[in-house]
Amino acid sequence: MIKVLIIDDQTIVRAGFAALLGAQDDITVAGEGADGHDAVRLAELHRPDVIVMDIRMPGMDGIEATRRILAQPWAEGVRILVLTTFDVDEYVYEALAVGASGFLLKDATADELVAAVRVVARGDALLAPQVTGRLIREFTKQRRTRPQAPPGLETLTARETEVLVLIAGGLSNAEIARRLVVSEHTVKTHVARVFTKLGLRDRAQAVMLAYESGVVVPGSSAPDPS
């Protein structure tokens, strides 16, 4: 079962999400909260797999709540799916920067919400990579400082760097395997090594690092998965 917390300052939104997710055979709703303070408290209490987190809330917003939760030793397995009204939103960028695993637009369909929770819970794919990639490119283009290579980047092999670039393009492990003509197991091994060497939690952080370090140039087209 995927244990989920729902954090949103709108009661009707929380109730709708809870009813929808709670009706799934593989998802259980452990709790609901109205702001970031609730998120931090309930996350420690329930240790959820996924937190569906609104970004813009009174008091403590979703960004600060995400930062505080993911800083805790017990939160290693927690994944945060942030909600936003706009697909290009600086708040979303900041949420990804502090460790959120992906984001979802509030006008998403019921099926998209359920699928998003499952995807983030697996930790093996970034939700809506084409939108996330555009978001990151837009905000990295606005940053005029020279990209800084993070510690560990120079330790990547040529193949591992190639895998990082493909992750940044939104490709899944299966798509990367087809592109590189290797097994999916081999890709998983490369991905695990990239994450270990760069100290990454998940694919969302890998995308952020690839753009911010200059491994992927802002404004360049994503690799074609076909």
Automatic annotation (TrEMBL):
Q: Where is the HTH luxR-type domain?
A: 149-214
Q: Which gene codes for it?
A: degU_2
Question: Which GO terms are recorded in the biological process aspect for this UniProt protein?
Answer: phosphorelay signal transduction system; regulation of DNA-templated transcription
Pfam families registered for this protein in UniProt: GerE, Response_reg
Key words, A-Z: DNA-binding, Phosphoprotein, Transcription, Transcription regulation
Q: Which GO terms describe its molecular function?
A: DNA binding
Recall the taxonomic lineage recorded for the source organism.
Bacteria, Bacillati, Actinomycetota, Actinomycetes, Streptosporangiales
Q: Which PROSITE patterns match?
A: HTH_LUXR_1, HTH_LUXR_2, RESPONSE_REGULATORY
Q: Positions modified as 4-aspartylphosphate?
A: 54
The molecule here is called: Transcriptional regulatory protein DegU
Q: Which ranges carry the Response regulatory domain?
A: 3-121
